[in-house]
Amino acid sequence: MKYLITGGAGYIGSTICSALEDAGHTPVILDSLVTGREEFTKGRIFYKADIADEKVVEKIFNEHPDIQATVHCAALIVVPESVTEPYEYFKHNVSKSIEFFYTLQRLGYGRVVFSSSASLYDIVPGFMVTEEAPLKASSPYARTKLMMEMVLKDFCAAYKMKGIALRYFNPIGADPKMRSGIHVKNPTHVLGKLVETAQGKLPVFEITGTHFPTRDGTGIRDYIHVWDLARAHVNAVTQFDAAFERAGSPNGNYLVINLGTGRGVTVRELVTAFEKVYGQTVNKKETGPRPGDVAGSYTNADTAKRLLGWQAELPIEQGIADALKWGELRENILKFD
């Protein structure tokens, strides 16, 4: 089967493409390469264009009428950057996605899996959230994801569309076969920064925020291996209709599913696990929270298991080991200016 992956040249999108290929499917990539990497498109069907370019989207479906569903990963994703550059985030993540979704429904390809975010959730007692937990998008980035969930839900109710919003928790690691991984020159992900500190590219790892109401004062997250995350997308697109049947065919043709391990890990605990896998300590210091930082959350993972037949399998230690391995290899794979 063929599936369209927007942002398929990015960290998560490229890993989804690999997981689809390993399962016997064919990804079709649409990526503007604003942040994605052309190296991740090699040997794959690839269209270099903006998601809002209606003519290119039409061309893709004319040339590949057998596409079964679309996974919409394309987005800007850096929380502190969204605080200082909200216009860019609302333009790329909201305005262009609205045009893209409208084109999909007009062409009759209304089955969409949307890359959403756990950053939508409000802080709850105990920090474990379900899909019904209260929402409080605390950064422009999070608000773009919440807006697009609202748009997709309304489009599914009004047009002949069906949507599954997958709320990601905190992806870590790399493709275990080292086909792709974190690709930006200066990673903003916590594990990317730990790897760069271990490599000596950063002088010190900053633990941002130590006065959150968690068990050790640092933010709590649900760190999920990117390969597990990718596998969930394979299940979402290949069991798309089955997921709705298992959910009882909800009104509005729209589902929300959290993707995480179901275990909360604090930043300080992640650092300890990293040093254990790495085999030595890293330079670190405590600082205040960055703009948009929150205490965090982790998920109850029951819905993903029930609706997608999926659960996370890879331990945090493998995510760390794969990130370290990718950190050693990536400059031979990616060409940075």
Overview of the molecule:
This protein is an alpha/beta fold. Helices cover 40% and strands 19% of the residues. Helix 1 links the parallel strand 1 and strand 2. Helix 4 (86-107) packs parallel to helix 5 (140-158) and helix 6 runs parallel beside helix 9. The protein starts with a strand and ends with a helix.
Can you tag this structure with a few keywords?
seven-stranded parallel β-sheet, globular, alpha/beta, Rossmann fold, 337 residues
CATH topology of the domain at 2-173 and 222-262 and 299-313: Rossmann fold
Low-confidence stretches: none
Tell me the helix content.
Answer: 40-55%
Distance between the first and last residues' Cα: 37 Å
Question: Helix count, per DSSP?
Answer: 11
From the alpha carbons, calculate the radius of gyration and give it in angstroms: 19 Å
Task: Tally the beta strands.
Answer: 15
Question: Main β-sheet, in a few words?
Answer: 7 strands, parallel
Can you give me a brief rundown of this structure?
By secondary structure, the protein is an alpha/beta fold.
Task: Describe how the helices and strands are arranged.
Blueprint: E1 2-6, H1 11-22, E2 26-31, E3 45-48, H2 54-63, E4 67-72, H3 79-84, H4 86-107, E5 111-117, E6 128-129, H5 140-158, E7 162-168, E8 170-172, H6 190-198, E9 205-208, E10 220-221, E11 223-225, H7 226-238, H8 240-246, E12 254-259, E13 265-266, H9 267-278, E14 284-287, E15 298-299, H10 302-308, H11 316-333
Parallel strand pairs: 1-2, 1-4, 2-3, 4-5, 5-7, 6-15, 7-12, 8-11, 9-14
Antiparallel strand pairs: 10-13
Helix pairs in contact: 1-7, 2-4, 4-5, 6-9, 6-11, 9-11
